[in-house]
Each structure stands twice: as C-alpha cells, then as structure tokens.
Write a structure and sequence with these properties.
alpha/beta, Rossmann fold, Pantoate--beta-alanine Ligase, Chain: A,domain 2, 2 domains, six-stranded parallel β-sheet, three-stranded antiparallel β-sheet, 20% strand, binds pantoate
C-alpha cells in the first residue's frame, strides 16, 4: 500500500480507479490508529472496490491550549496497520498541502446550531475545523462513501448535516463504537491516561449503560442526567456535560420522544473522555 503526500498523486490514483468504474470508500483519521479505525477500514472494504484512508492531524480543529502538539503521531505503525487491514492507499498530507494559504486564510465551513452545543460549547471552533477539513478531504478524494465512528456522535451529525446542506455527493456511514473489554470506548486519547486513571475510565460507559436502563424503564430525563453526573463524580471523573438528546438532531427531548441518545464528556487527568449510548425509551407519562 502506497503512502502519498501530494494532492496531484492522490488525484491521479483516484481518477484512475474511478475511470475503471471502481467505487471508492474513504476513512479520514488523525492517525495513531486503533481497532476503532481499523473497523472502519474493514467495513469500508465491504462497501467499495477501493479504500482510501487519510492521516492528518488537523490544526484547525484544536483550540488554544489543547493537545495539538502532544497528539500522538505514529505514521509508520499506522501505515503498516492500514496495509494489513486491506486499505489500498494512504493519503498523509502536510499542513501546507491542506492549508496552502495558512489557517487564517482558509475558507471555512460552519454547520450552525449543531456545532455550538455540547462538545462545541466546551471547544469553540472545533466543529468548524472538523467540517472544513472533512469538506476539503471529500473534495480531494471524491469518494462514493465515507465512514465515521459513532463514538464521536456529534461529529457524525455535523458531517451528515454538512453533506446534506452542501449537496455533497457522498454517502455517510456511521459505524458503532469499538470498546475495550471493560467497556471503555477506544480512542487515541486513552493513551494520555495513567494506569490508575485507566482503571477509573470505564465508569463513563458503565454509568451511561445504567442510564440507558433507567430511560428504558421510564425514569425522567433530568433525573437520569443528575444520576450520571453524581456517579461520574463518585468514580473520580470530572463531568463536562451529561445530557439526553434526540438521536436525529441532538435537540432537547420532548415527553413523547422515544429515540434518544445519552451523551457524556468527562475529564480524567490529561484526558477528556467522550462517549454516548443510543436508547429507545418509554415516553414520559
Ligand atoms: O475523528 C477524527 O479523527 C477527526 O475529527 C477527523 C474526522 C479525521 C477530521 O480531522
């Protein structure tokens, strides 16, 4: 499997495959790949003739004081894993290829509303950075289908909305979260956890799972949210937000909404963990 850096080389390969009538799947990543990413590549194999992955640690989606410099970069190991998993091509551009005019001169893509809530409230500008780079990568690769993990549930909805609003000709496929045996959602940022913190981290998924049971039994949304916040604090995590929202647009839950998602974000040492669980609940009386 080749690793290419230049846009011209990407275009040449992708154009050749498309001219031969082949369907292209795309898996955008920031590298430091784990089984969550590799599952996206495996799923992609079943949906297309060719799979293209990208690795680009996108500076535009990191805020001041966030972990851009510390973000783990393991390019050679990632290349090997992608090859073993059946990826056909790795596009790993440097920042000047993606942002030739620099970050400040870059045209941006903003999905209003969805980008400013939850993780977007804690990380202002984050989803503009995500939408902008994903839109650019879609235009560079021109895939038929692109795959994203459901662990970043809000990101997945932002991307779906962007594709719809801008009429981008790409199908978006969300893939269920891949978990460690103790339930912790796989994430490149789990590497920031000390052994003691790693032992505490599964509390996030555990409390979301308990919340799911409560919602299925008809317990009120506010009470469920309060219980999760208290459980996280008791387990040594510092909650950022815990909220139950409508699954399709992350809007507030009305009494008769049954398809909901409970989303949580919590700080643990240097890491900020996020996770979510989709629930079909009993409507409130
Ligand atoms: O989920 C990620 O790794 C990133 O946000 C993405 C989608 C590759 C954009 O940089």
């Amino acid at each position: 499997m080749d690793r290419i850096e230049r846009l011209e080389d990407l275009r040449a390969r992708a154009t050749g495959w498309r001219a031969a009538g082949e369907r292209l799947a795309f898996v955008p990543t920031m590298g430091n790949l784990h089984q969550g990413h590799l599952t996206l590549v495996r799923e992609a194999r079943g949906l297309a003739d060719r799979v293209i992955a990208s690795i680009f640690v996108n500076p535009l989606q990191f805020g001041a004081g966030e972990d851009l410099d510390a973000y783990p970069r393991t390019l050679e190991q990632d290349r090997r894993l992608l090859e073993e998993t059946g990826c056909d091509l790795l596009f790993a551009p440097v920042a000047s290829v993606v942002y030739p005019r620099g970050q400040s001169g870059q045209t941006r893509v903003e999905v209003p509303g969805l980008s400013e809530i939850l993780c977007g409230a804690t990380r202002p500008g984050h989803f503009v950075g995500v939408a902008t780079v994903v839109c650019k990568l879609f235009n560079m690769v021109q895939p038929d289908v692109a795959l994203f993990g459901e662990k970043d549930f809000q990101q997945l909805l932002v991307i779906r909305r962007m594709v719809e609003d801008l009429n981008l000709p790409v199908e978006i496929v969300g893939v269920p979260t891949v978990r460690e045996p103790d339930g912790l959602a796989m994430s490149s940022r789990n590497g920031y956890l000390s052994p003691d913190e790693r032992a505490l981290a599964p509390a996030l998924y555990r409390s979301l799972t308990q919340a799911g049971q409560s919602l299925r039994q008809g317990v009120a949304v506010e009470e469920v949210e309060r219980t999760v916040v208290a459980a996280l604090r008791e387990s040594g995590l510092t909650p950022d937000y815990v909220t139950v929202r409508r699954t399709d647009d992350l809007g507030p839950v009305a009494d008769d909404d049954v398809n909901v998602v409970i989303l949580g974000a919590a700080y643990l040492g240097r890491a900020r963990l996020i996770d979510n669980l989709k629930v079909t609940r009993i409507a409130e009386a």
